[in-house]
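Researcher: I'd like a structural prediction for the single chain below. Treat it as a standalone chain; there are no partners to consider.
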Amino acid sequence: TDAELSGRKKTFTEVQTERLEQAERTVLIKCPPKLNEKKLLQYLSSHGNIKSHFFFENRGIHALIEFSEKDSIASLQDAIGIPRAAEHHVVPFKSRLFTFTLKNPVSQAAEETPLHLSPQSHIPVKELIQKLCCADSISSQMYILLNEYQLTEENIKLRFLACSLVRDFTRAYFPDSTVKPFGSSVNTFGKLGCDVDMFLDFHDVQKHATKTKKGPFEMEYQMKRLPSERLATQKILSVIGDCLDNFGPGCVSVQKILNARCPLVKFSHQPTGFQCDLSVSNSIAIRSSELLYIYGCLDSRVRALVFTVRCWARVHGLTNSVPGNWITNFSLTMMVMFFLQKRSPPIIPTLDQLKELADEKDKHIIGGYDCSFVSDLSKIKPSKNTETLDVLLGEFFEYFGNFDFVKNSINLRKGKEVNKPESSPLYIWNPFEQDLNISKNVNQPQLEKFVAMARESAWILQKEDKTQRVISKEPWGLAALLVPFGKSNPSKMKNRMKGIGSETIRSLLDSLKLSNSNNLQKAVGK
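Model: Treating it as a single chain, here is the predicted structure.
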């Protein structure tokens, strides 16, 4: 691509466009159990050149095949039959999901070759801890965690394919529509196994911009008019949801949640193994995804610290996969960004600084909010900060263990603490919708638990004798922070909790006793 030729990092939009186009040329095949890889590729190549492929396990072996040309798919589809199942009647929707079986299994099974399978989930915390103990510094421990947890190239391709398969349905009604992933699938902070958030978009920007104003007439489509955008969204999602439910191969557990603040359709996509949430385009959510993408690309320490803090929070039950009063991963990520803006010198720029660098094409005003920031990464000066991740991790816990949450709020636009506009226990300004607090759901006990855990972690990192722990085969550094606390000595912990309400301490110590086993279970299960 042009970006690579000039040696610059691709913009968020370039990456998105490229991956969506790639997904259009891709098919997914459920393979026979005893497979000869060479034979499969040889056969498929008769329909056109294969640009890339990989295998993965998900109730059987699947192959994702990316052709160089989109036409190859039509050629392959021509050769594929409709299932002959006497006991079922099929819905004759022809997708890009196929099942291959061997015509004469016995003779062909002899030619089976071992396949390399791409992992689609991360290792359990227990295994991670063992790996971390072999590293030589906390910094390398953090990079090991990042490598184990981050989305792989293959997993990202699968996510875009899931979107592309949904798009095949929406196009039946809205030929110009696109379905794009947003949030953790694209912001560089997603971990293996996270849901796919996708949205349906009708605004094909290019077409809109080039509309010529020639001729004597104002011309427009006749379209159905509804009293509100929300109602239109609900109607569209309701029909698409029914479509997926009734006709979508492998779409199961379809739930339409149309009365939510942001109406959505939840479903499980069995062929790819993803849990998916489909909503209608939300421009602000996309700007948030791009902002995080920029921060994630600027400095390798950013992602390593975010992944570490999120894994730590998960193990200690500070975050949870079910909604509630817990801190969300998004809030935690924003807290890490804020901390990195506050370092001296800063590791990442504030949002206001990114806005200063924006040019005409970066201007975005959405619903009255200014969401402009620079998209070209090469315009942002690299940080002069040389602190190691060893230092940054300890400092993060130190900083938030002593943060004045009663008085101050966290503002990423300015990169500084500002007085709270209202009394929520934790106040983090939404970077774009300036009157919203992204952590409004968090209650006082949960915030106090976070502070207690941060203090405990800062203390462990300061006091720990690495050599001693390595000799006695105890987890050290980051590994020591991923073992539930209070196990070794709950009374030690009490002394470090001065200034935290005694009620909270009591409930904390109780929850520690309860949650040691549970949290590992949860962390491993997730």
